[in-house]
Amino acid sequence: MSRYLGPKAKLSRRLGISVTEGEWELKGNKVLERKSNVVRTKKASDYSIHLKEKQRVRFVYGLSEKQFHKTFLEAGKMSGVHGENFLFLLESRLDNLVYRLGFATTRPAARQLVNHGHIQVDGKKIDIASVRLKPGQTISLRESSKNLKIINDSLDKVTLRKEFVSYDPIKKRGVFVRYPQRNEILPNIKEQLIVEFYSK
After folding, report:
1. Can you identify the CATH homologous superfamily of domain 8-90+187-199?
2. Long-range own/partner contacts, residues 171-175 (CB < 8 A, 24 or more apart)
3. In this predicted model, what pLDDT tens digit does every residue of 53-83 receive, in sequence order?
């Protein structure tokens, strides 16, 4: 299954989580508001509850089913809590860290910056969005990309960054300081439901 390319506002309402807005945009969550004349009475099945939770996380990070499941399997080989490790692997993707640093207002926009060759890791151009970084690695803009309006406009909107990344505004460079703690990301997600979904 490829990445979802349909109406994202409708998808966000269906999943109950915004898949369109960056954390430092000021639009709020209007995209999640449902028309008042819509009434839902059908009780969700156990399978649909697990599927919905899986889809919520998959669409937030913008992965295909194949990429998502592959990452899930890799997390299962790590020591620690499977579901939490899974989220930490998703957070360590280059496109996500570009988004977390504020070079882009959304993850899809961050993925585009990477794919178009605007991003460097430890001083080397990387154009593969799915590359996973390790704590201590540096993320920067190519010299020719530092004055791009779309990037500077995004940086101007940043009001707060997660503590697991640091940013130097003079050099326009960030560092993946550490893996996140569970309470720092996706507080409304129950990742155990995803583990149960793939375990069935």
Report:
1. Ribosomal protein S4/S9, N-terminal domain (1.10.1050.10)
2. 171/140, 172/140, 172/141, 172/146, 173/138, 173/139, 173/140, 173/141, 174/97, 174/101, 174/138, 174/139, 174/140, 175/136, 175/137, 175/138, 175/139
3. 999 999 999 999 999 999 999 999 999 999 9
